[in-house]
UniProtKB/TrEMBL annotation:
Cofactor(s) demanded: pyridoxal 5'-phosphate
Name this protein carries in UniProt: Aminotransferase class I/II-fold pyridoxal phosphate-dependent enzyme
Transmembrane segments: none
Cellular component annotations (GO), alphabetically ordered: cytoplasm
GO BP terms in the entry: cysteine biosynthetic process via cystathionine; transsulfuration
Gene Ontology molecular function: any one: pyridoxal phosphate binding
Top-level taxon: Archaea
SUPFAM superfamilies for this protein: PLP-dependent transferases (SSF53383)
InterPro entries: Cys/Met-Metab_PyrdxlP-dep_enz, Cys_met_metab_PP, PyrdxlP-dep_Trfase, PyrdxlP-dep_Trfase_major, PyrdxlP-dep_Trfase_small
Source organism of the structure: Candidatus Sysuiplasma superficiale
Family according to the record: Belongs to the trans-sulfuration enzymes family.
Keyword line: Aminotransferase, Pyridoxal phosphate, Transferase
Amino acid sequence: MKFATRAIHSGEEPDCRNGFGDVVSPIHMSTTYASTEPGRATRGYDYTRTANPTRTALETKLASLEGAKHGLAFASGLAAETTLFLSLLKRGDNVLAAEDLYGGTRRLLVNVLSGFGISTTFADFTDPDALRSKFRKKTALLWMESPSNPLMKVSDIRLISEIAHEHGAISVVDNTFMSPFLQHPLKLGADIVLHSTTKYIAGHSDVLGGAVMLSDDALFERIHFNQNAAGAVPSPFDSFLVMRGAKTLHLRMQRHCENAAELASFLEERKEISHVLYPGLESHPQHRLASRQADGFGGMLSFEISGSEADARKFVRRLKLFALAESLGGVESLIEIPALMTHASVPESERRRLGINGRLIRLSAGIEDIDDLKDDLLQALKGM
Ligand code: P1T
């Protein structure tokens, strides 16, 4: 079945024999399930943290969207990350992570996992040769976002996964920015895909969620065990909301891509903007790789204001339609300054080295009418 059909039907086949034939998966709110025999779960369900039918429907859909054998849902993207790290790493291990990535992921690695004796080395994943020199004896896992948050760097997932495997490490791709509609890391050789489903998959800025998709049975068993043991699971209602959003992912994603591409070209022409980072632009350093690796360029872009940091703050305050807010991937357009918001937890020296300065602005293109979005940017740029 093609993507749009799977997005709508996977995990939600009406059950006319044992159920009521619901076309939409019911929200099973019960936390516990009665059984007729001690220790024998009713149709596989005994306690909702362990498994819940609404969550099962979501997990089936998520696996199907990524073309994976297994899907696991979590309470947030970071809950998924925490469970993944907990499951696959032990004291003494090293994580090799892309230096540009969501500030919360960096904070989890640097401020939390370090306390358990797990070290992280950061590297520029757009330079695979340099990456090889960063491996340590105990490097167990490679972590990348492509495109990265917020500098929109594109990494060669196939090549980097090969390098990981040469060194006996697991390759993980945080596919949040692209969504399963645009990019298929498992097909490119990655071992595990992770999503903050809070973003494009749910798509309406009204639910937190996370997901892990993979096909390796042994890795799945380890993460599945800790999904229950650590308990960072989504509620049945949250599972329903993520599933409901996922049904229109393909439609929304097409418009996100169209609007972002148009806004990127529009901003690149403006003298008030010094440069625009969007993989769909010919000026993007990895434009050819991005064209080859994914089926679109996504709805996210970053740009730098030509003026001062104060001008950048003035610009975002002047916008009327774009909400000044963290997060991304919802139907509404958002704007933020990563250095002050999503990446404030990254040490200033590191931000400076990477180029995440106070003039850098990140934009999540929503699916509104493009003319209204352009008009809003134009009025905010006036006189800059
Ligand atoms: O917020 P949560 O659902 O826990 O997801 C964390 C996360 C993981 N991976 C990526 C690539 C992300 O962008 C995020 C969350 N990001 C934002 C809130 C943000 O504004 O960038």
